[in-house]
Design brief:
Blueprint lengths: L1 H5 L2 E2 H8 L3 H13 L3 E6 L2 E6 L1 H36 L1
Length: 89
């Protein structure tokens, strides 16, 4: 998605850069478009794709709750390890 955030890109560029088959890229882009995670714009015969930041925002907010959870869990593990180390000393 970050590749598409920098600027609009045609399917051909995405295929070359990611070294994937064109049908696979088109299928993924269709899914992303249907989920409103990318914008598509026609330029003549080419379809140009770009990340839809507003569409991604809810996904980012949802995943941030997991980030907070795992951050707290990792801090707890670190604290326990440090406590055990102190007890050994």
């Amino acid at each position: 998605m970050s590749y598409l955030a920098l600027r609009e890109r045609p399917v051909g560029d995405i295929v070359k850069t990611l070294r994937l088959e064109q049908p696979s890229v088109s299928k993924h882009l269709r899914i992303l478009r249907d989920a409103r995670l990318v914008h598509v714009r026609r330029d003549g015969r080419r379809m140009l794709y770009r990340t839809n930041a507003e569409g991604i925002r809810p996904l980012h907010e949802w995943t941030s709750t997991f980030e907070q959870y795992w951050s707290r869990q990792l801090n707890r593990i670190k604290e326990r390890a440090e406590q055990k180390e102190k007890e050994r000393s």
